[in-house]
Amino acid sequence: MLASAAEFQAGASRAGSRGYFLVGKQVADFGAWGWARMDFAVEVAGKTDVGCVRTNNEDNFGYDTDCGIFVVCDGMGGAAAGEVASQLAVSTVLSYFRQIAAADAYPAFERRFEDCSEHANALGNAILSANRAIYQAGLADIRWSGMGTTIAAVLVRGKSVSIAHVGDSRIYLVRDAALEQLTSDHSLIMERVRRGLMTIEEAAVSAMQNVITRALGAEPDVQPDVSDLEIVPGDTLLLSSDGLVRHVNDDQILEIIQSAPSLQTACDTLIEAAKTGGGSDNITCVLLRFCAQSR
Ligand code: CA
């Protein structure tokens, strides 16, 4: 599906790319657009780093503050295919919400996600669209055969956010000086933990850390986890690839986010901490902070 290459390039201009990437502080007022006026100013910062061991960066991130969409992806596949998959996922999801903004309406959804908002349904369907784009690109070009990617995505609407993920990229919430993991990894070891076959402590030292049970692009269809969350002023969300959490524990993540003088400094410090801890994989983090604003 090389027809999507133009989209891919357009999206890439706003998406993070390999190596050192730094986005300046941005404050967005989502109230200008659509269904729900925004009660918060949202500050965002993101960064990706190749780490200390690998020679290429298969992670990608991107966001569109006008559309309120924020995405982190961690690609996999031979040669440069992992980078292609993660960037195609980012650009497809951003493009999905740009089209919605232009049409000022949600499209007919190909799948309904029960017990969650229309916004969460849109996010889930955007991920289905990304899955299809990567799967078809893999079929169309032998170099990209079998490529895949994780995704962690946040959609901001009014006083709530919708979150979704596939694979082992994670979303955390910092609220009231506590860190809470909002996503549950689609990984072999976490499936074993959930089934009572392995403890969290055993999982942390398992040699199967990088085996994931769901990915975008691997199959014609995929099942993302989607949900909604009410935001309160002061909340911070962290989207990260596994290269961060493999080397930086929850207490360190919380301490860095709480003590950093800015979100960008927090991103920088999180990545430095992962590199100091070994940096065995590519590292990506995107931070969103919600601040009350007068209307
Ligand atoms: Ca990774």
Describe this structure in words.
With 295 residues, this protein is α+β, with helices and mostly antiparallel strands. The protein has a single domain, classed as Phosphatase 2c, domain 1 (4-Layer Sandwich). It contains 8 helices and 13 strands. Strands 1, 2, 3, 9, 10, 12 and 13 form a 7-stranded antiparallel β-sheet that branches. A hairpin with a 4-residue loop joins β4 (59-64) and β5. The protein is globular, with a radius of gyration of 18 Å. It starts with a helix and ends with a strand. 47% of the residues are buried. Mean pLDDT is 86; it is low at 1-37. Calcium ion (CA) is lined by residues 74, 241-243, 281-282. Calcium ion (CA) binds next to α6.
Layout: helices, strands, pairs:
Blueprint: H1 5-12, E1 21-22, E2 26-28, E3 40-49, E4 59-64, E5 69-76, H2 81-103, H3 118-140, E6 148-149, E7 151-157, E8 160-166, E9 170-175, E10 178-181, H4 188-194, H5 200-204, E11 225-230, E12 236-240, H6 242-245, H7 250-259, H8 263-276, E13 283-292
Antiparallel strand pairs: 1-3, 2-3, 3-13, 4-5, 5-6, 5-7, 7-8, 8-11, 9-10, 9-12, 12-13
The structure holds calcium ion (CA).
Describe the structure using short key phrases.
7-stranded antiparallel beta sheet, binds calcium ion, disordered N terminus, Phosphatase 2c, domain 1, 32% helix
| Radius of gyration using CA atoms only | 18 Å
Approximate shape: globular
Attached small molecules? calcium ion
CATH architectural label? 4-Layer Sandwich
Mean pLDDT: 86
Total helices: the number is 8
Range of helix content:
25-40%
Q: Describe the sheet with the most strands.
A: 7 strands, antiparallel
- Summed up, the domain count is 1
Instruction: List unreliable stretches of 5+ residues.
Output: 1-37
CATH class: Alpha Beta
